[in-house]
Every structure is written in structure tokens, then in C-alpha cells.
TrEMBL record:
Alphabetical list of Pfam families matching this protein: Rieske_4 (PF22543)
Keyword NAD: no
Ranges of residues in domain Rieske: 19-120
GO molecular function: 2 iron, 2 sulfur cluster binding; metal ion binding
Highest taxon above the source species: Eukaryota
Lineage start: Eukaryota, Metazoa, Chordata, Craniata, Vertebrata
Keywords: 2Fe-2S, Acetylation, Iron, Iron-sulfur, Metal-binding, Phosphoprotein, Repeat
Protein name per Swiss-Prot or TrEMBL: Rieske domain-containing protein
Natural source organism: Gallus gallus (Chicken)
Gene symbol of the encoding locus: RFESD
Database matches in CDD domains: Rieske (cd03467)
Cofactor(s) listed: [2Fe-2S] cluster
Amino acid sequence: MALHSPSKGTVEPEPDGLVLVGKEDDIKKSQRITAKVNGREVVVFYHEGRFYALDSRCYHEGGPLHLGEIEDIDGQPCIICPWHKYTITLETGEGLYQGINPLEPSPTPRWQSKGEKQRIHKVTVKNKNVYVSPPDLSVSFDSDYFAEKYKNGGDLAMKK
């Protein structure tokens, strides 16, 4: 398998439908890559011993999540979109926000969920290779709009 660069993996479908996105050691070193999975750009993160994969465009306005910072929020690793600072959990794709209960005597902001907004993808590691499962399109997510909109554009289509 040849990789074009640390940020772009080649697409090599396997018999069981998994898509090879890179070598385990390479992704561990770079901490993140983007790859095409069934025509859809996906970002794969390696964070604190685990692999995560999400649609690479933020569900809000299509921001480039592969350029975002990972932060721990209430014990959950989250990617912060570099465009508008939207917070997305790596494990579930939930959008998080800080809200208050105005009925409390001294309202304290707490992290709350907007629900699963960002499509996540299952990651499998076999024989030192990292694979991503194709998305189940029978269920829709807010990020699908931008995944489809920028399907053929890659990084060139991300200019704001």
C-alpha cells in the first residue's frame, strides 16, 4: 500500500467492505489523517491510545475538523472546529454546548448535548493496518450535508 502523504490515505476496499486508510504506526505518529471512504472525506484521529473516525467537515458549516484541536470535556475527548469553535465528541459525534438553567438561584454553565450531529465511523485495526467501515446511510446526520457537498473537492473545496 502506498500513502500519498501523511494527511491523505489511498482507498483500498477489502472483501468485508472495510476501507484501508493507513498503517497503524503512521497514524499513531501523525495523530490524524484524512482519507476517502466510499467517496466521503473522513478524518481519523489517534488520541490517548484510541482511534476515532468522523466525517471531516463540521456539521455546523463544513469547517475542517482535521485542523481542530482535541480537548477533554467532562472526561470525553472532543474535537473543536477551528471555524466557529463547535465542540464534537470523538466517540459519539454529539454536539456539545455550555448552557445554564435560568431557574437556578446561581446558574452555573454546564456542558449539555445537542444530540448526535456528526457522523462517526467504525475503526478496525488488523495486522498493523487501520480500516474504516463505510457509513450506514440509512441513518442521517447533520454532517451528511457537508460530506456530500464537498465529496469531490477534498482540501481545495474547504476554502471559506
